[in-house]
Amino acid sequence: MLNKSNIPLGCVVYSESIHGIEAEWIFKRKDTIERGKGIGIRLTEVNKKRRYEGEFEITYSDTDGNTSPKLYLIISFESGYYTLTWSNNEKITDIGIGIERDNKLLVSYTKAI
Predict the structure, then answer these.
(1) pLDDT band at 1, cuts 50/70/90?
(2) Helix (H, G, I), strand (E, B) or coil at 53
(3) What is the torsion angle, in degrees rounded to the nearest 10, for the CA atoms of residue 17, residue 97, residue 61 and residue 6?
(4) Are 4 and 29 in contact, with CB atoms under 8 Å apart?
(5) Which residues are 29's β-sheet partners?
(6) Which residue from 18, 54, 71, 74 puts its CA 20 to 30 A from 86's CA?
(7) φ and ψ at residue 6, rounded to 5 degrees
(8) In Å, how far are 5, 37, 47, 62, 80 from 21, measured between CA atoms?
(9) Which superkingdom does the taxonomy of this entry point to (predicted)?
(10) Is the pTM of this model over 0.85?
(11) Every domain of the chain and the residues it spans
(12) Which residues lie closer than 8 Å to 29 by C-beta, 6 or more apart?
């Protein structure tokens, strides 16, 4: 039987901001729930048709004010969905998949293996 409590799993909702994207996230690892916000600066031109697609430099913070290192986020559009890859110092840290609804990007993600 699969022990679901050991699967690290997160959800993040992105919305557009004047300089890129803003995030609200939640992450479960074992029995611990973490949550917080993030701010991403767009590094590439805006795709007018798929506004979330692109490359970003993003920093996340939790509810205690602890911040992540600056991460490099690539959001790519595939056939009807988005794929996301986060990296730090050229090492992939997280991967995700998402859909756009009501002008927001809804993403499920997990730690990269």
Answers:
(1) low
(2) coil
(3) 170
(4) no
(5) 32
(6) 18
(7) -95, 0
(8) 30, 11, 14, 17, 20
(9) Bacteria
(10) yes
(11) 4-111
(12) 8
